Amino acid sequence: MSADPVVAVRSAEVSRRTSETAVTLALTLDGEGRAEIATGVGFLDHMLTSLTKHARFDLTLKCEGDLEIDDHHTAEDCALALGQALDRALGERRGITRFGWAYAPLDEALARAVVDLSGRPCAVIELGLVREMLGDVACENLSHFLASFATSGRLALHVDLLRGTNDHHRAEAAFKALALALRQAVAADGSDRVPSTKGVL
Ligand SMILES: [Mn+2]
User: Fold this and answer.
1) How many domains are there within the chain?
2) Looking at residue 165, which CATH number applies to its domain?
3) 169 CA distance to ligand 1 centroid (A)?
4) Taking a C-beta distance cutoff of 8 angstroms, is the pair 184, 97 a contact?
5) Which residues have CB less than 5 Å away from ligand 1 (the ion)?
6) Considering the domain boundaries, does residue 127 fall inside one?
7) Is the pLDDT of residue 1 over 60?
8) In Å, how far from its chain's centre is CA 76?
9) Is residue 17 one of the residues assigned to a domain?
């Protein structure tokens, strides 16, 4: 019988409250793609539903943010909570594949995401979106979401939008590519090893 806690239980709950937002989140890495997302920002809900589906996570996320100001705090704090949940769910990061990379098209748009669950936060995000807003989210806050997720999730994340003309397609392709890369990176490799020459991630 396997006693590997990373394989046995890979889920986490996060509750995060500040003067700007209140976020509650439950994440299961080995899920079925079930998403129950209510951030108050429709386009962000759309991106997180897609991320959950294609990473095959289960994710419940509720946020009550100060949208009377704008979408910035909500996007940032949802990302920080999601990264924190990923970090907790991975535990010691024992027995994971660690690296993942994927391309995802959405019609004419093509995105590439490369993930290293290194334990070190780093993000290079080049979405090149030209619209100011997509629905009720500022495009700059989509890049900020991805960078904040990498910070609290302690991963290296490179996302590049390689081509495309429709910004909705471009953004969605980026989140889908991230989903596919994450799905690879968190996958159990069948070992009990921490995949690092340092022995620690
Ligand atoms: Mn869409």
Assistant:
1) 1
2) 3.30.230.40
3) 7
4) yes
5) 172
6) yes
7) no
8) 12
9) yes
Tell me what pLDDT residue 164 has. Answer: 98
Q: How many other CB atoms are there within 10 angstroms of residue 190's CB atom?
A: 9
Tell me: pLDDT of 113 over 50: yes
Tell me, what DSSP letter sits at residue 112?
E
Distance 91 CA to ligand 1 centre (A): 33
At residue 8, the pLDDT reads 66
Task: Tell me, yes or no, whether 64 lies in a domain.
Answer: yes
Q: Range with the lowest mean pLDDT among 18-22, 43-47, 194-198?
A: 194-198
Å from CA of 94 to ligand 1 middle: 35
Distance 53 CA to ligand 1 centre (A): 13
Domain that holds residue 144: 11-185
DSSP of 123-154 = EEEE----SSEETTEEHHHHHHHHHHHHHHHT
Q: How far is the CA of 48 from the centre of ligand 1 (A)?
A: 11
Distance 142 CA to ligand 1 centre (A): 14
Residue 174 lies in a domain: yes
